[in-house]
Amino acid sequence: MARPLKIALVAGEASGDILGAGLMQAIKTRHPDAQFIGVGGPRMQAEGLDSYFPMERLAVMGLVEVLGRLPELLGRRRRLIRTLVDERPDVFIGIDAPDFTLGVELKLRQAGIRTVHYVSPSVWAWRQKRVLKIRQACDLMLTLFPFEAQFYEAQQVPVCFVGHPLADTIELHADRAAARNALGLAEAGGVVALLPGSRGGEVERLGSLFLDAAERLCALRPGLRFVLPCASAERRAQVEAMLVGRDLPVTLLDGRSHEALAACDAVLIASGTATLEALLFKRPMVVAYRVAPLTYRILKRLVKSPYISLPNLLAGRLLVPELIQDAATPEALAATLSPLLDDGQVQTAGFDAIHRALRRGASERAAEAVLQLVERA
Asked: Which domain of life is it from (predicted)?
């Protein structure tokens, strides 16, 4: 009898843990006795992963924080590579976290182990020379978006566009009335969702700006209400401090961002992955972002893409307004968002087309691509 498949996976944060668990489920439908080793969080472990160390040890953000943890991260990577070379899995799958996983993939591929990278880094937008390392490191790139696959095809990197798991799980038509009922909001009247980001720095730069814009929207549209989902207790305290002295009809939520998006009529949102969620809920949006002035000047030189938000990148055109840096003023945000409360159909029609294009059974397609790679080996 052939031995069971042995599959190694490494995820570095919660979003990767979700992707990894879905992929493992799909692999097990074809190979119920498959063995999984590597690094992952609670969802991947629940699917049977033997995690060599806590995934949280890889979840580090920011340059200074990375530098402080660099000796530990490099040591863990060296030990992980040695262990996996000894274990000889049929395939290694690095899930996002490219600064850590691409180095593992490179060493394992040099040792004769097939390698897959799941979720493309933003090489199409900046630091495009990273594609040279990707070409050396992985036998197959799995992308969530079609424009990423087009980039890799042009660079002669084996690639498979699998779609996005969120497009599979979020319904094509969200029930606004049910979401308002769940949040205790009256069905009648306009509601705007405010999503200034999930990290402290984002909320610091955008929180007061979004609340200032909300005050101006209230002046333009009396009776308008707001919902603001907070990613953590720390973010909620941060927003509560910003609300002191304001008289805004805003409901703060602990998490529940999907319910907020389903309940609202339009969204004022920070650029990031949350814009994809707003797109999938078919809610008209205005995207804003601010960074430190020096960072902005550097990024303007490095970033090759004409757009920063996922809806525009996916549409290949300016589908949603992007107000960046000095253009992101309370007056401009309110003036740009207000008309979308009456007529956002151009945006929502584009969102629907994108949702259907991304709704491809991502976990199943990813599993199929991985298993085909293993069979070819």
From this structure: Bacteria
Contacts with 318 (C-beta within 8 Å, 6 or more apart), sequence order: 307, 312
Q: 100 and 23 in one domain?
A: yes
Let me know whether 158 and 215 are in one domain. Answer: no
Q: Mark whether 133 and 221 lie in a shared domain.
A: no
pLDDT per residue over 23-73, tens digit each? 999 999 999 999 999 999 999 999 999 999 888 777 655 445 556 667 888
* CA distance from start to end of the chain: 18
278 neighbors 195 (Cβ within 8 angstroms): yes
- pLDDT tens-digit series, residues 254-309: 999 999 999 999 999 998 889 999 999 999 999 999 888 887 787 777 777 788 89
271 and 199, same domain (yes or no): yes
β-strand pairing of 140-143 with 266-270: unpaired
CATH code of the domain containing 132: 3.40.50.2000
Give the whole-angstrom CA distance, residue 102 versus residue 99. 6
- Domain shared by 78 and 94, yes or no: yes
CB 286 within 8 A of CB 323: yes
**Total domains in the fold of the chain:** 2
Amino acid type, 21: A
- Beta bridge partners, 7, equal 36, 91
Q: For 298-355, what is each residue's pLDDT tens digit?
A: 777 777 778 889 999 999 999 999 999 999 999 999 999 999 999 999 999 999 999 9
Q: Are residues 352 and 364 in the same domain?
A: no
Where residue 237 falls among pLDDT bands split at 50, 70, 90?
Answer: very high
Domain of residue 365 covers: 6-163+360-376
Interatomic CA distance for residues 160 and 151, integer angstroms: 11
SS3 327: helix
Distance CA 365, CA 370 (A): 9
Tokens of 80: 């992980």
